Amino acid sequence: MDLVIQPGMTFYQISNIFNIPLQLIILSNPYKNPNTLRVGEVVNIPGHFLEKYTIQPGDTLWRISQEHQTSLEQIYAINDVDLYQLRIGDTIFIPKRIEEDILTFNELYTFDRFEEDLFKLVTTYPYITLKEIGQSVMNKPIYEVVIGNGDKHVHVNGSFHANESITTSVIMRFLHDYLLSLSANQPIRGVDMKQFFNEITLSLVPMVNPDGVDLLNKGLPENEYYRELVVDINKGRTNFNNWKANIRGVDLNNQYPANWEIEKNRKRQQPSPRDYPGRAPLTEPEAIAMAELVGREDFDRVLALHTQGKVIYWGYEGLEPENAQKIVNEYSRVSGYTPIRYVDSHAGFKDWFIQDYRKPGYTVELGRGTNPLPFSHFNKIYEETLGIFLTN
Ligand SMILES: [Zn+2]
């Protein structure tokens, strides 16, 4: 919500009045200098919204504050009017702390709904950063959300594969619950999220393959060229449940320069719903955006969420660092998923990350069943995955 600075107001004072960590207020107002706030300047207060209230006969501000579970100080801070001159019928604003869900999770995401939810979160909690790290073949933004202020940099992505988009919902739900936990001052499974915030800078790319996800969850593209292309690649079939690739039939998780040639030689030789590595490594904009992100940022650890199988792949050609095993054992303990060190597979995002950076990289296969997993599995999968997110 917006707050108009009144004479003498400081971020420190606002932090006390609204019981929000000072740091979150400062991070929510990146272009303001906390030492030179001007009267009349508008600042962002995270995790709150404003409710309009019309003064009734017999009202006192004290009673209004009691009935709305707020404080007189908060009402004074928000309403830049002479509150003693209020008359019946006048309107004031009551600040409300968000303590309930602001997103609903009841079906798989289309790109539009995903974007709408992201905007809702970043407006409500302006201390998170939303960046566009690239665009899909059909020019949809690929979004990265960054939350936290710690020295440890952890990256998590989802929906590399089109028919695995329940992973986007899992990441969004974690982000939502994390923000709500900071706002409401409630730990998650005993983890103090304020402390988590100060220890970990978390990078999330919840939807790497938005065109592919829309093909599954929205339907055939409106664009005629791509509509004909995908039907052609799918051999005339209009059921795309088997589709993992991007919109032009390249499997994004076979695009990375980690023994790419091996996959090139033994996998599909032309655009396909799955398993076509492309004509060269890193030809697809979605795969390039992820490689560039990793190249720019100094991630200590990456996790790529896929479905299904309840397993965690964690090694690549003996190049994984020593601490990778300790971490995966903890992931396994909290999720019940089985760690698998080596598998005969190359050219994946985590393979390339381990090979090039010699840091821990994981492919986590969430849930069990036939892809696309139905949304009815969501709550169970989220509960299984939550501990992995919370592992420091
Ligand atoms: Zn996958």
UniProtKB/TrEMBL annotation:
SUPFAM superfamilies: LysM domain, Zn-dependent exopeptidases. One of its GO terms (cellular component) is extracellular space. Keywords: Hydrolase, Metal-binding, Metalloprotease, Protease, Zinc. GO terms for biological process: proteolysis. Residues 1-45, 51-94 form the LysM domain. Its cofactor is Zn(2+). Residues 107-390 form the Peptidase M14 domain. The active site is at E365. GO terms for molecular function: metallocarboxypeptidase activity; zinc ion binding. The keyword Coiled coil does not apply. Belongs to the peptidase M14 family. This is LysM peptidoglycan-binding domain-containing protein.
